[in-house]
Amino acid sequence: MGSKNNIERNKIDYILTDIMPVETSELFSFGKFYEYLSEHHKELNGILEELLKLKARNVYMFNGGIWASTPLKYNILKGVNGAREINIVQPSSALNIYFFIECYQKEILDYLENNNRFSLRYHRKNNDLYYRCKSQKLTEYFSKTSRKVNKSIIQQTGAYFKIHKFNSVSSFTNSRLWQQCNFKYRYFAKVDYKACFDSIYTHTYKWIIERNTVDSKDAKNSNMLIVIDRILQNINGRSSNGLIVGPEFSRMIAEILLQSIDKGVFEDLQLEGLIMKKDYRVFRYVDDIYIFANNSNDIDRIVKTIEKNAQKYLLRLNELKYFTTETPVLLNKWIEKTRILADKIAALFHNKKDLRDNDECDYLVKNGYISLERLKDEFAILMVDYPNDRRYIVSFILSTLLNNISNKKDGYKLFDTNKTGRAYILLELAFFVYSFCPCFEHSQKIISMIVYFDDELKFKDDENNHNKLVNLIRRYAFIFEKANLNDICNWFIFFNEYNISLLKNSEDVIYNRIIQENNPILWANYLIYSRYNLKYNGEVLNKLEEVISNNIMQMVADETLLQKEFWYVLIFVNCPYISTSLKIKLKEKVNLIPHLGNDVETKSGKLIYDFISTNHLNLFFYWGYYNFDACKQLTFRTYQRTLFKQYKNKRTVELYGSLDS
């Protein structure tokens, strides 16, 4: 049963929950589009009814019209030094995915349930009509300055369907099932698919039902697996190579293909006389495969069988990541030493039980001496000892800090009277740790810590505290100069809201890199940041208008949505800061969206065209005059994904991202 503290589930919530990647600017959202679609549910349902009729007639669906569009592609930090391409789909693709899910939801979920052999993570129907999102205290805390903590907080959650059986790798490796396998079997191996999402060839979905790959090229009907091929091409600019990373939707669709491989492996091993749960266990979490067996020969046979079945669908195992050992298995050798340091950091705070037992103390941060340099040194040693695990260690330590600081939401003060200066010691430690891996997830955590501190230090109003925060941030400006820009995009929003500017030499480095990136969302964030100074804002705006003009000049009249430059139209068509003449040029490009006609594709195009033509200040990018504090909302969203919520139960690492969760 739902209650006033929960958010009621709606069919089109899927557009908010499962289509947007986690690593996205806080000011980019499908929220207003969602609201528009909610208001025009009759038109939306009318299109869905037509599609269901086409499906019943076995017509090849989602072909032509506005369905095909090009996502916005950008890179985020993967691991410590690598890069991972992330995609934001266009609104036309969001509609395409939504209609597909509505037409094929039952078939997809039935397929995943019936073909599950080794899956640790697959989707099931969510019978709960409410998203259980917050306690009343939490609501009150975040609502002080944010009056819009409602539907917007379910964006990027991937929570439309239930995830079965495990929602993270660490929940599996900390489970009784993992322990039992370590006791029962003598040998273990771990392997993964090489560049799994990038290597998925969309036509291979047809091969699942059409074993003859020649015949599959001509297969055009409403069969789910055939339509999946079309959908995956539509949302990726008609490319059949690769599955876009970002939406939770992609993981669901990847699971269908990976389960087909699992099923083949299971059947082949049966023919060879290997019985699951007796001779071996195989577990797969998305593209990571964990194998337990009674002897090393069986491990080799299982790996070769996986390799053989994967090659049928053009996937390969990553030989460089093949790992085998005798049980019991210790995957995270860094964890114990990291816990020792984390315990020292946690000891800087009163825990809630102690506070409940002590009526005289109502603050979280203890008054004792904090040996900052010693904590830094101990952390630096971990970085040297475990260079390949830096991301996990940084995540663990930042989560320890944030989890203790976020206890403020339960009604506690952070500091004793006249002891707020201790905030800068904790922030110094946090920035030092963050500097070793400034990924998107860690950026959110640092910003969230500052937002919690702001309740007592009043950074925006207290000149002394504001100056101390500015000086601290400028000391660590090298992070912003060197970090992947998409991982630090929300810092520009934070700087704007807290009236913080970097020094000119740092700005010059970042500004030149933004020009090279040619990413409209980065440009939008930086334009907002630059508003602290009218002269500098004018320089940035002039350059941005030149960039926008050059991009839209390259567009041709045909197939507007397939051109990557159209993203500049989506982001800036309602920007209140650009010139009127440029707005007119952008609106001319909006007019090229197919919106005149009675076929189902054009009716979908009209929904997008009409929404953009409303001239609302905040369409896909929130330019201003929004009634929420972006940093408060970011903090709430970060809390929803906070790692190590059960840190005291000694859970190991969890990463919550578009690919890693």
Please describe the topology of this protein:
Blueprint: E1 7-8, H1 13-17, H2 31-39, H3 41-56, E2 72-78, E3 82-88, H4 91-114, E4 121-124, E5 130-131, H5 136-142, E6 162-165, H6 169-173, H7 176-184, E7 187-192, H8 196-199, H9 204-207, H10 213-216, H11 224-234, H12 248-271, E8 280-285, E9 288-293, H13 296-311, E10 323-326, H14 335-346, H15 352-357, H16 372-385, H17 390-405, H18 422-434, H19 440-457, H20 463-475, H21 477-482, H22 489-497, H23 504-517, H24 520-529, H25 534-553, H26 566-572, H27 580-590, H28 600-612, H29 630-640
Antiparallel strand pairs: 1-5, 2-3, 4-6, 7-9, 7-10, 8-9
Keywords: Nucleotidyltransferase, RNA-directed DNA polymerase, Transferase
Pfam family, one: RVT_1
Organism: Ruminococcus albus
Quick one: overall form?
Answer: globular
CA radius of gyration is 26 Å
The portion of residues assigned to helices is 40-55%
Mean pLDDT: 90
Taking the alpha carbons of the first and last residues, their distance comes to 28 Å
Largest sheet: 4 strands, antiparallel
Helix count, DSSP H or I runs of 4 or more residues:
29
Strand order of the largest sheet: 8-9-7-10
Poorly predicted parts: 143-149, 643-655
Number of strands: 10
Structural class: alpha+beta
Give the amount of beta strand, in percent. 5-15%
Question: Please, could you describe this protein's structure?
Answer:
- α17 (390-405) runs parallel beside α19 (440-457), α18 (422-434) packs parallel to α20 and α24 (520-529) runs antiparallel to α25.
- The strands form four sheets. The protein has a four-stranded antiparallel beta sheet, with helices on one face. A two-stranded antiparallel ribbon has the order 1-5.
- It has helices spanning 13-17, 31-39, 41-56, 91-114, 136-142, 169-173, 176-184, 196-199, 204-207, 213-216, 224-234, 248-271, 296-311, 335-346, 352-357, 372-385, 390-405, 422-434, 440-457, 463-475, 477-482, 489-497, 504-517, 520-529, 534-553, 566-572, 580-590, 600-612, 630-640; strands at 7-8, 72-78, 82-88, 121-124, 130-131, 162-165, 187-192, 280-285, 288-293, 323-326.
- The model is unreliable at 143-149 and 643-655 (pLDDT under 50).
- It contains 29 helices and ten strands.
- It has 661 residues and is α+β, with helices and mostly antiparallel strands.
- The two termini are 28 Å apart.
- The longest helix has 24 residues, at 91-114.
- Among the domains are: 11-326, no CATH class; 518-592, no CATH class.
